[in-house]
Structures are given as structure tokens and as C-alpha cells.
Specification:
The complex is a heterotrimer of chains A (298), B (379) and C (602). Chain A has 298 residues and is mainly alpha-helical. Helices cover 72% and strands 4% of the residues of chain A. In chain A, the strands form two sheets. A two-stranded antiparallel ribbon of chain A has the order 1-4. In chain A, a hairpin with a 2-residue loop joins strand 2 and strand 3. The termini of chain A are far apart. By secondary structure, chain B is an alpha/beta fold. Chain B has two domains: 212 residues, Response regulator (Rossmann fold); 130 residues, Response regulator (Rossmann fold, 3-Layer(aba) Sandwich), CATH 3.40.50. The longest helix of chain B is centred in the last third of the chain and has 24 residues. Chain C is an alpha/beta fold. Helices cover 55% and strands 10% of the residues of chain C. Chain C is built from 23 helices and ten strands. Chain C is elongated. Chain C starts with a helix and ends in a 6-residue tail after the last helix. Classes of the chains: A mainly alpha (298), B alpha/beta (379), C alpha/beta (602).
Chain lengths: 298, 379, 602
């Protein structure tokens, strides 16, 4: 590229990529947790992310709730939505072939998106301004307070979820159910409850992602879930689906890779190159970056 | 027996005269996305068309005939468009088709109209190829090269710009067409496009592209996308410290949603449009007033273009019925082609030999969180 | 593929009768197809029921049928989760449209070239499929589809994002109808052939398929190539119907649509796919009256259909000739009185391992394993749990690659050979935890294992020509023979997974024998059997050993069985060979007794 590499630009792009990647990571966490526990690619997850953004939007604009309260509120509502979806659409299919729940998930995704188009209206909406933007220029690298808040919130939530999964009783139960549902049941774990909680946690994270996207980019729309959902899903797989730190790593890599391809290769071929990288990663690590290939017992 | 036959004959005569007196309705098929990714555009089109239907019928119809608009959803996809157009023609027997809205849908839907000799008038499909499909296909909007030319000329002559950057949606025919034509005319006029970047549909992070653009430090930044994306780009651009570049755009900017999304970042930007909503021309004033009363929001460019398309259709329907005394697709096509002085919000419109409208463009400026009139450019 | 063995075993059907039925079936199929076509076209011409609009929807149904059936071959029959089918369709559409619009080629060759280009794409995608499975493969194929789309987006010669308008409208109802019918017939014929059984075996259990001699690499790629070809043809038909294509028409959602069709219809059911193509194409049109609520209702109905029919509208069942009383005799079993035949020619074969060792991470599961098996020997391999016995089997059959040392079979080094190659050379095995193709019938389990000397080609399978008929009859006859030998002939049509345990063990042995081995490896055949069953097993193994002139290596914990059966016993402990002797001497061996101390009473 003209002018050669320039350090401030590399750093700037890294900042851009991390900001984008942190959102992917938040959404990818939901994918990965749900997959880990019921082996379902929850296609509706991207639309829960969209719903979360709208819950927050209506909380702030119609009910005048401050952001700090609207965020947990939207997360709670999304958690309830996620659990409801699980109960109504996935639970009846738990004994059915996996692919049946996958198609149901696609159906739920279409349903939520079209409900959104109808009831939230198709027009994109500007997100309410919460705090005035402050921009710092550090040696040619521009960072805004909004970016920092987003990054900090995303990291805080990821730490929180890791603590829940690895340090609490319910987290232990989640890992047990993920490992062997029947054995966990025999140990007295209420698997249905644990699955419900997993959907709730994943959905809450997606809602947080949705609100952060609204907060940072200032625009939400009923169809926003599709693109973010797809990218986050890919990120989850690249990290090793079912593995919590894998989703975070995958999300960040996805964000940074995308930005760097635009910055140093070509924005026209961005998605093609990003996907090509992913395929190559998978060819070398068939179970994702942090996934371990399971040796089949013969 | 005789009596029975007589009764029958009288009955038939009665029915026939009733039909003649009641005059056949004018059925127009409207193909527009009311579901799917671009439903937001489709809604504006439907709103304007149904507003016109109501108004024209309350005026007593066209030549005493009521107008009926049948809306079919095309979901913004070519295959659904083909179904919608086909259904309207072969099931509903419409006189003409209004729509489709996007160029790719028009490219898939208009050939069916052409093959069945049904006039198709798209309010908003800007791709040049659309009207090249055949002599039954018309449009009410500018074609891509025109706006590209208008704005590159404005950049070179009024803003005295030497360098430009572009950022557009690689997956969207409208924005790509405008980008290419801007580049063509801008460089022909002695300017230079120093950096050209793209993104994909539905994306909301442009920081990587804008960081590159910032480095190139252009005089103007050409953003030929719709308001919902442009607002995001201008915010991120200012945030990343792009200060010098003047933002330029096209009719996709025209929406009441642009300013809330973009905030103050878009101040000082210019875009080309069909009309100026704040104009004092009676046609514009009436349209904006009635639209706001009916839908509680200002009309955007798509609504305005649909209004223009309806005005063109109305004048051609009038002329054709006057001429042949009945509803006839061939006569309607000829009347459309011969359109002169149809009065819409864009002013007086006529068609050129390629069935594209000849009408002036206005350039608007974003000033104090409002659109302000800058100048009018005649073709 | 459900065989009705029971009904037909009793009455032997003569060859002539079969031919007669085959002709009838062909005539019924052709007649039905022609009648369907003329009905639709007649109604359309007469302007009754079928307007231009409905004819157009029927064309989409046909195209969706081709998409669905071809994806079902990859996804439903071969079990490879593909999310990139729209990518193949895009290649076919663009190549065909480029040929006709820009190069002015006629339609038929354009379709063919489009399909072939897509098939090349299928070849490329088939390669990651060799390393990836399940959801990871899904992502790789999804990525492939997106890459295709982005590449087209950047190709200005075909219009980039603006697309390619003005494609000649060559696609007629006849074209689509004929191509859809051809796709259905070809895929059906392919599935009901030896190739098709191999594909289904991969779906059911890839490892077992490979050890039964199925070259999984080749068949997986074949599924992708054939599936992609038809998707490409569907793309060509689509392009010449819609007359305008752009990359957004072949996005991720298009792949999803094809997936919805096959799952809704029933994975692995061709007739279900056709039915679902109708439903998925017509439903959104039928809901037009609901305007803005149309897609909401559509998605709700999709969810409800899946909730009430989780295995799809048709499950894996088919509607076909059988329901019309025209069943294919070859797909069911018939009584046979012929002689059982194994491959028993050739010089005395010898299996020899030289210093084989096997490490898992830091753990050495087998070390310096040397063993020689002479022609006709019946040898036992025993040792405490975790001694490395199954690992030895895995090395011998190619499922694990030895860390060091080499394995020689009949003079050939087979150390680095694939399991299917090793099986081809004449080593077959059973598994400790039975690995049948448990969703298939008993008969199909055995049929998958059968291969003739010069097996018929794919073309012969698709055209039902050449050696197909005679070989299929032969395979069916021999399979039934094997089942009879193992007392399973009256259960030929049952689903393997539903057999009682003992019968499953026997079926697994029958399946292994059907591959025509010279060396048979049995991994704990008596596990879970009661004394009576064990005794029968003993007789059975003795009998097959003699009957098929086999060399047998047996892992077994039942010492009684091993002592009675084996001529020689090898004892493994912690990966080391601690004894290799006649049964009478083994029981006196101090080290063996130590190794087993507290484990089993010897």
C-alpha cells in the first residue's frame, strides 16, 4: 500500500479491530454456551441480540430509564425471551435429530426478525445519546470514550461469565450437563433448569452486545441480527465451539482479522479473505483454535 | 319459455349497462418490499402510492374511473419480484405495474411486464439497464450517471475540490453505480479519487476504511449510500478525526432519519435530490403536508419519487383514456412515452427516448440540523 | 430401501418375472412423468387452474427440487453437513448465463458446462470435508459459499454487484420438469446401488464403513461432486428463467432454503424432498393475502411443522413403486440355494508385525509388538484391561498408525495403508462396542460389505445398465446366504440397531465376512453373551474358520472360550507381549498368572 506501513495506523486499526471484535465475542459467547450444552447452533441468537438492542432502546426512550439501569433490564428481558424460545421451540425437540432443532432455530430467527420488522418498524432507529462523546488523539491514534466504555463493558461481562461458568455451582452444573447430560441427571442435576439458565445467560450477553452496538454505532434495525449473528457464529466455531474462552478469542480474532484485511489487503475482498483464513485455520485445527480433536474410541 | 328468455335478455342488458355506467376500475399493481431487509424503503413507497390512490379517488378518479392499487410484496429479492409481477399480471390482470423499488428487483420483474406488454413504471430503480429492458419500462428517478455527474461537478466547481475519497457498499448496485460514475466525471473534470473503499450490506463498523481515508486526507468524501448507513459513516469519520473532508451524497440521504443517526457529524454535507421539502412550490407544500398528516413522518426521497411516478401515471392514464375511451395497455404505454409536463414534486417531468425522466436536480446542504436549499441543476 | 425379505424369501421370483416388472416400472415411470407434464401444460394452454403465475411457481418448485435432491445426496445420504449449496448454484448460474448471454452458446451445452463448473467447485469443497466433520464442516462450506459470492461481486465481466441482466429466457417448464425428473431418477438410482450403500454407510458410521472397505475419501468427494453438479444445473435453469442474476440471490439464506427443504422433507428421503420443495415454494405465495404478516406466518408454520414432524414430512420413507405394488425384487431378499463362497484362493497368507509400538501422548500403549500369524491359524489375543489389545487391532486395520515398526500382510507392507485398502487386501474385523450401521436393515449392513471382482461403475448404476442388474442380484443372493449361515435370514428386513444383542454380534461377523477376508479379527465377540450363546458362538467361529478357510485373531476375556477355541494364545500386558504359546502352556505361565492375578480365575 502507498506510504508503507505506519505504526500509528497499525495501532489505530488494532484498536478498531478490538472494539469490533469485543462485540463479536459477546455474541459468540451465547452461541458457544448453548452449543456446548445442547449441541445446537442457535440461529435465533443473532435475533435475540437485535431484541436486546430494542429492549434497551424502548427502556431509554419510552420509559426514560437511564442506561446503567436499562442495560441490566434489557439483559433480563432478553434472558426471559431466550428461555421462552428454548422452552417452546427447542425443548420439545431434544430427542429429535439435531438438524430438526437447527431448522426450528432458523424458523425462530425468521420469526423474530419479521416480528421486529412489523412491530419495531422497518426503519433503522438512532440510539439515544447517553453521554457526550470525547475523543482523544494519542500520537495519531484516535480513541473515544465510547470505544473505551464499550471495550470495558464487554471485558467486564466476559470476566463475569467466566466466573459464573468456572467458579459457581451453577457453572459447574453447566459444565457437567455439557459433558454428559445423563450422568449429570444421575448426580441430581436438574438438566432442564441448567439448559434454561444457559440460554438465559447467553441471551443476556447478546442483549448487552446489542445495546453496546446501539450505543457505539448509534443505529439499530430489525435486520441487524443476521450479519452480526453469522460473524459471531463463525467466531465461535473458529475458537472451538462449546469452549467459553474460545468464543472470546474467536471474536477478537474475527474483528481484528476483518479490520486488518480491509486496512492492508482489500476491502472488496474482505469477507472472502476472512473466510479463507477461517477455513485454513479449521484445516489445521479441525476442532477450532482451543478445541481438542476428540479421538474416537474404537 | 319465451318469457324466460325475455327475462334473461333483460337481465343481461341490465348487467351490461351497469358495467358501462360504473366504468371499469383502473387497477394498478404496486410491487414493493414490505418484508425483508429493505422493507423500510418499501414502506415509504407504499405510503406515497396509497396516499395518491386516496387523493385521486376523492377527486373523482381519472376520467370518472376509480383507481385501485393492489400491493404485492417482493421482499427485496428478484425471485419474489418475478412472482409478484407475474401474479399481478396473470391473476389480477392489472393495467400497469408500479415498481419494483430496487434495481435488482426491477431487473428481474420488468422483463415479465415487457413480455406481457404491460407498462412498468419504477419510481426508484436507478440502474441504467432497467429501462433498457424494453419499450414498456419507465422510471421516475434519476439514473446513476446523472447524480454522479451533478455532484462531481458541484465538488469541482463549487467546492473547488482537487481530491476525493469514496466509501460505498460493494454489494449494492445503487451505491456502486453512483461511486463509479462520480469517479468517472470527477477525474474527467481534472480531480483525483485518491482512495476508494467498500463495505458489505448490513455492516456498521467502518473504522478500518475510514482510518485509511483519513491518511489520504481528501477534500471531499463521496458517500453514495442510503441515510441509514451514511449517518453511521459520518459519525465514525468525525470521531476518527477526519475534519477537512466535505461529505457528499445523493438522493439516498434524503430521509428524516438521517439527522438523528448522523447527529452533528453531517453538518456541512451536500447531497443531490429530487426536491426540497421546504420549498414553497404549491405541489411540494401540499405533498409534504398531506404525507405528514397521513403517516406522522416527513416523506423521504423514495416517497417523493413514488409521488412523482404517480403523477406521471395519472397524466398518462388521463391522456390514454381520453384518446381511446377505454383502458388499454398499449395506449397507456404510448401515453407514458409521450409524457410532457407531468407535475410532481420534482417539477415538470417528461421522458427522454430511453424512457428516463428529464427533470432538474436540487442540491441540498445540511445546515443547523436541517436540509437547506443550495442550488438547482438542470439536465 | 426397506427390504421386504420375509414376504419374498418364501417365493422365489424368476428372472423373467423380474425383467417383466422392471419393464413395467420403467413404463409406469415414463408414463407418469409424461402424463404429469401434459396435464400441467394442457391446463396452462386451456387457461384452467394454471395461469402463467402458477406455471412460474411450478418452475421454481422444479428448481428447488433439484437443489433439494442434490443437497440431500450430500447431507441426507452421505451425512456431510453442507451449508454452501448456494455457492454451487451460483457457479452454475453464472457460468451458464455467461455462455449464453456473452458467448452466445446454445442452452443445453451452457447448462452442462455450468453444472460441470459447479462440480469442480464440489471437488474443491470435498477436500476440507476429508478433514472436517459436523458443524466445523458446515462452517467451511458456508465460508466457501460466501467466498464464491464475494468473488462474483468483484467480477466486473459479469456485472459485479449490479448483476447480469438480459439473460435469454431459455428455461421453459419442459426443461425444468425434465431436469428435475432426471435428477430424481439419477440420484435415486445412485442411492440404490453399491455406491449409494457406501454413501449411507459413511453417514451411519464412518469408521466402520472404512474398515468394511469403503473408500470414504473417494465417496465423500463423489457426493460433493455429483451434488454440486446438479446444483449448478439448477443455477443455470434459474438464471435463464429469472433472466437477471446478481450475487445477492445466492447468499447464505439460499443455502439455508435448500437445507430447510431437505430437513422438512426428511433427510434421506427423495420423495420427501420433492414434497417439501412444493411446500417451501408455494407457502410464501399462498400467504400473500396476509401482506405484512406473510413472513411472520411463514416462519411460524415452519417452526410448527418441525415441532410436529421432527423427522420431516416423510422421515426417511419413500413413496414409490412399492406402494404401487411394483417393488424391485433386487432390493429385497430372495431365497437362494447356492454355495457359500469366500475368497479362498492364493498362497498361504501370513500376517507379520515387526516391532510395532504405539504412543498416545506420553503413554506407550503397545511396545515392540511382534507377531506372526500363519495361514489357517486360530489365535487368541488376551490380556488384562488396558493391555493394548484393541490398539493392536486398530494398528492392524489401519485405524491407528503405528508410532514405530511395520505390519506386513501377505508379503505387502500395510503399515501406512488406509483401512479401506487394508480391508480390500483381505483383513476384516468386528468391534468391541458393536459398530453396525444401526439405522439400516440387516440385509443392507451385509450388502455394503460386498464387493465383486469388477464392480459395476457409477454410470451403470445410474443407467441401471450393464453389469448392474446381474451384480445386484448376485450381491443380494450372497448376502442372504451369509445371513442364513448366521441364522439371520428371517430378520433381513429388520433394522440392525433393533436386533437383540447376540444377533447384532453375529451380524457384525457376517458383515465382516462379506468383505471376503483372508484374516478375520474378532474383538471380544462373546462380550455380554450368556453361556448358551457363548457356546453357540464357539461353534460358529470354529465353523466359519473352517468353511471360509480363514485365519482368525481373537480378543476375548472369556478364558473358557479362548482355551477351547484357540490353537495359540498371545498375552499382552501393559503393551508388552508376555507370552505366546499353546493354551495348555499359557495356563502354567507364571507371568501370565501374575498379570491376571486378582483379575480373573485362570
Amino acid at each position: 500500500m502507498p506510504g508503507g506501513l505506519d505504526i500509528s495506523m497499525v495501532v489505530q486499526q488494532l484498536v478498531n479491530g478490538l472494539a469490533l471484535g469485543s462485540v463479536y465475542a459477546l455474541i459468540a459467547l451465547g452461541y458457544t454456551m448453548v452449543y456446548g450444552i445442547v449441541r445446537l447452533i442457535n440461529f435465533a441468537h443473532g435475533d435475540i441480540f437485535m431484541l436486546g438492542a430494542y429492549y434497551g432502546y424502548f427502556a431509554i426512550t419510552m420509559f426514560k430509564i437511564p442506561f446503567a439501569l436499562a442495560l441490566p433490564l434489557a439483559m433480563g428481558l432478553a434472558a426471559v425471551t431466550g428461555m421462552a424460545v428454548e422452552r417452546l421451540a427447542y425443548k420439545p425437540l431434544r430427542q429429535a435429530p439435531r438438524i430438526a432443532s437447527l431448522i426450528t432455530a432458523i424458523g425462530v430467527s425468521l420469526l423474530l426478525q419479521n416480528l421486529g420488522l412489523k412491530f419495531f418498524e422497518a426503519r433503522p432507529r438512532p440510539y439515544p445519546r447517553i453521554i457526550p462523546m470525547v475523543v482523544w488523539d494519542v500520537g495519531g491514534v484516535v480513541v473515544s470514550n465510547v470505544q473505551l466504555i464499550m471495550l470495558a463493558l464487554a471485558i467486564a461481562l466476559m470476566v463475569l461469565i467466566s466466573l459464573i461458568v468456572y467458579r459457581t455451582k451453577i457453572g459447574k452444573a453447566m459444565r457437567a450437563v455439557s459433558f454428559d447430560k445423563d450422568a449429570a441427571r444421575l448426580m441430581g442435576i436438574d438438566a432442564d433448569m441448567v439448559i434454561g439458565v444457559t440460554f438465559a445467560l447467553g441471551s443476556a450477553l447478546a442483549a448487552a452486545g446489542g445495546m453496546l452496538v446501539g450505543f457505539y454505532y448509534n443505529r439499530i434495525s430489525p435486520t441487524m441480527g443476521a450479519m452480526y449473528g453469522l460473524k459471531a457464529f463463525v467466531a465461535a466455531v473458529v475458537g472451538g465451539i462449546g469452549i467459553v474462552p474460545g468464543a472470546m478469542l474467536g471474536g477478537l480474532i474475527m474483528g481484528v482479522a476483518e479490520v486488518f484485511v480491509i486496512a492492508f489487503v482489500s476491502s472488496m475482498l474482505k469477507d472472502a479473505i476472512a473466510f479463507a483464513i477461517l477455513i485454513v485455520i479449521l484445516l489445521f485445527k479441525p476442532a477450532g483454535l482451543l478445541g481438542r480433536a476428540v479421538r474416537e474410541k474404537v | 319459455m319465451l318469457r324466460k328468455s325475455l327475462v334473461l335478455v333483460v337481465l343481461v342488458l341490465l348487467i351490461m349497462s351497469a358495467v358501462a355506467l360504473g366504468a371499469e376500475e383502473i387497477i394498478i399493481g404496486l410491487v414493493t418490499p414490505v418484508t425483508g431487509d429493505v422493507a423500510t424503503f418499501g414502506m415509504s413507497v407504499r405510503n406515497a402510492a396509497l396516499l395518491w390512490e386516496k387523493q385521486v379517488n376523492s377527486r373523482g378518479g381519472i376520467q370518472g374511473r376509480k383507481v385501485k392499487i393492489l400491493v404485492e410484496d417482493d421482499k427485496g429479492t428478484p425471485a419474489e419480484t418475478a412472482n409478484a409481477v407475474s401474479k399481478l399480471i396473470s391473476q389480477s390482470k392489472v393495467l400497469m405495474i408500479m415498481g419494483p423499488v430496487t434495481s435488482k428487483c426491477a431487473n428481474a420483474g420488468a422483463p415479465i411486464g415487457q413480455a406481457n406488454k404491460v407498462p412498468v413504471l419504477t419510481p426508484t430503480a436507478t440502474d441504467q439497464a432497467v429501462t433498457a429492458i424494453g419499450d414498456h419500462v419507465f422510471r421516475a428517478c434519476f439514473i446513476d450517471p446523472f447524480q454522479g455527474q451533478v455532484m462531481s461537478k458541484f465538488a469541482l466547481e463549487t467546492l473547488k475540490a482537487k481530491t476525493a475519497a469514496m466509501l460505498y457498499d460493494i454489494g449494492n448496485d445503487y451505491t456502486k453505480g453512483l461511486a463509479e460514475n462520480f469517479k468517472k466525471f470527477f477525474e474527467a473534470g481534472g480531480g483525483k479519487v485518491v482512495v476508494s473503499e467498500t463495505y458489505g450490506a448490513g455492516e456498521s463498523d467502518f473504522s478500518a476504511q475510514l482510518t485509511k481515508i483519513k491518511k489520504a486526507n481528501p477534500d471531499v468524501l463521496w458517500l453514495p449510500d442510503y441515510y441509514n448507513t451514511v449517518g453511521l459513516i459520518t459519525r465514525q469519520a468525525r470521531q476518527l478525526g477526519i475534519k477537512k473532508a466535505v461529505f457528499l451524497g445523493a438522493d439516498g440521504w434524503d430521509s428524516p432519519e438521517l439527522l438523528p443517526i448522523a447527529g452533528e457529524s453531517i453538518e456541512g454535507g451536500f447531497f443531490s435530490n429530487h426536491f426540497f421539502a421546504g420549498s414553497t412550490q404549491p405541489a411540494v407544500v401540499a405533498f409534504v403536508r398531506d404525507y405528514e398528516a397521513a403517516y406522522k413522518s416527513e416523506p423521504d426521497a423514495l416517497a417523493a419519487l413514488t409521488w412523482d411516478a404517480c403523477a406521471i401515471a395519472e397524466s398518462a392514464l388521463n391522456a390514454s383514456i381520453k384518446k381511446v375511451g377505454k383502458l388499454d395497455r398499449a395506449a397507456l404505454r404510448d401515453a407514458l412515452a409521450a409524457t410532457r409536463d407531468a407535475q410532481g414534486v420534482s417539477g415538470k417531468m417528461a421522458f427522454d427516448e430511453n424512457r428516463n425522466p428529464i427533470k432538474p436536480a436540487v442540491i441540498l446542504e445540511v445546515k443547523n440540523a436541517k436540509f437547506a436549499y443550495k442550488s438547482t441543476i438542470n439536465p | 430401501m426397506v427390504s421386504e425379505a420375509k414376504a419374498t424369501v418364501a417365493k422365489s421370483i424368476g428372472t423373467r418375472a423380474t425383467d417383466g416388472k422392471q419393464l413395467t416400472r420403467g413404463a409406469v415411470a415414463l408414463g407418469g412423468l409424461a402424463a404429469g407434464y401434459f396435464l400441467v401444460v394442457g391446463l396452462h394452454r386451456a387457461g384452467v387452474l394454471i395461469s402463467d403465475y402458477y406455471l412460474q411457481i411450478l418452475i421454481w418448485v422444479g428448481i428447488n427440487t433439484i437443489m433439494g435432491v442434490s443437497l440431500n445426496l450430500i447431507n441426507g445420504f452421505t451425512g456431510q453437513f453442507s451449508l454452501g449449496h448456494a455457492g454451487f448454484m451460483a457457479i452454475g448460474a453464472y457460468v451458464a448465463a455467461y455462455m449464453t448471454k456473452i458467448l452466445g452458446a446454445p442452452f443445453a451445452p451452457a447448462l452442462l458446462v455450468g453444472g460441470t463448473a459447479a462440480a469442480l467447485g464440489g471437488l474443491v469443497v470435498g477436500i476440507p470435508a476429508l478433514r472436517l466433520a459436523g458443524d466445523y464442516l458446515a462452517i467451511a462450506t458456508l465460508g466457501f459459499g460466501e467466498i464464491i459470492r464475494v468473488i462474483i461481486l468483484n467480477l466486473d465481466v459479469v456485472g459485479g454487484p449490479r448483476g447480469l441482466p438480459g439473460i435469454p429466457a431459455h428455461t421453459t417448464f419442459l426443461w425444468v420438469y425434465a431436469m428435475a425428473a432426471a435428477t430424481v431418477v439419477i440420484v435415486r438410482n445412485l442411492i440404490w446401488s453399491r455406491q449409494g450403500r457406501a454413501l449411507v454407510a459413511i453417514r451411519e458410521d464412518e469408521t466402520a464403513a472404512e474398515t468394511m472397505g469403503v473408500d470414504t475419501t473417494r465417496y465423500k468427494i463423489m457426493a460433493f461432486v455429483v451434488g454440486a453438479f446438479f446444483a449448478g444445473v439448477a443455477g443455470g435453469l434459474y438464471a435463464h428463467k429469472i433472466t437477471f442474476i446478481d450475487p445477492s440471490q445466492f447468499d447464505f439464506m439460499k443455502s439455508i432454503e435448500a437445507l430447510v427443504i431437505i430437513v422438512l422433507g426428511g433427510l434421506g428421503s427423495i420423495t420427501g424432498t420433492v414434497l417439501a420443495a412444493f411446500v417451501v415454494t408455494f407457502l410464501p405465495e399462498a400467504l400473500r393475502a396476509f401482506a405484512d404478516y406473510r413472513m411472520i406466518i411463514y416462519s411460524l408454520m415452519l417452526i410448527l411443522m418441525m415441532l410436529y414432524r421432527p423427522r420431516g414430512l416423510m422421515g426417511t420413507a419413500e413413496f414409490g413403486f412399492r406402494q404401487l405394488g411394483l417393488g424391485d425384487a433386487r432390493s429385497s431378499a430372495r431365497d437362494v440355494g447356492g454355495q457359500a463362497m469366500g475368497r479362498n484362493d492364493g498362497p498361504p497368507p501370513v500376517l507379520e508385525t515387526r516391532g510395532v509400538c504405539m504412543d498416545f501422548g506420553g503413554l506407550r500403549a503397545v511396545s515392540d509388538f511382534c507377531m506372526t500369524l500363519r495361514q489357517g491359524e486360530l489365535v487368541g489375543l488376551i490380556g488384562p484391561n488396558g493391555a493394548g489389545k484393541t490398539t493392536v487391532f486398530n494398528v492392524l486395520t489401519g485405524l491407528s498408525e503405528a508410532t514405530c515398526g511395520s505390519v506386513h500382510f501377505m508379503g505387502n507392507d500395510i503399515t501406512r495403508k488406509r483401512p479401506s485398502e487394508i480391508n480390500d487386501m483381505g483383513i476384516a474385523r468386528t468391534f468391541q462396542n458393536i459398530r453396525l450401521f444401526s439405522n439400516l436393515t440387516v440385509l443392507d449392513n451385509v450388502r455394503i460389505a460386498f464387493r465383486g471382482e469388477r464392480p459395476y461403475s457409477m454410470t451403470e448404476a445410474v443407467l441401471r445398465a450393464g453389469r448392474y442388474s446381474s451384480q445386484e442380484e448376485e450381491i443380494c443372493r450372497k448376502s442372504m446366504e451369509f445371513l442364513r449361515l448366521f441364522g439371520l435370514d428371517d430378520r433381513a428386513s429388520e433394522i440392525a440397531g433393533k436386533l437383540p444383542y447376540g444377533a447384532q454380534r453375529r451380524l457384525e461377523m457376517a458383515r465382516a465376512l462379506a468383505t471376503g477376508p483372508k484374516l478375520l479379527l474378532l474383538d471380544e465377540p462373546a462380550a455380554g453373551m450368556n453361556p448358551q450363546e457363548t457356546h453357540e458362538l464357539l461353534e460358529l467361529i470354529r465353523w466359519i474358520h473352517e468353511r471360509f478357510d480363514l485365519t482368525v485373531l481373537l480378543i476375548e476375556h472369556d478364558m473358557n472360550l479362548v482355551m477351547k477355541l484357540c490353537q495359540r494364545i498371545i498375552v499382552l500386558d501393559y503393551g508388552n507381549t508376555i507370552a505366546d504359546d499353546a493354551p495348555a502352556d499359557i495356563v502354567k505361565n507364571r507371568r501370565v498368572i501374575d498379570a491376571y492375578l486378582g483379575e480373573e480365575a485362570v
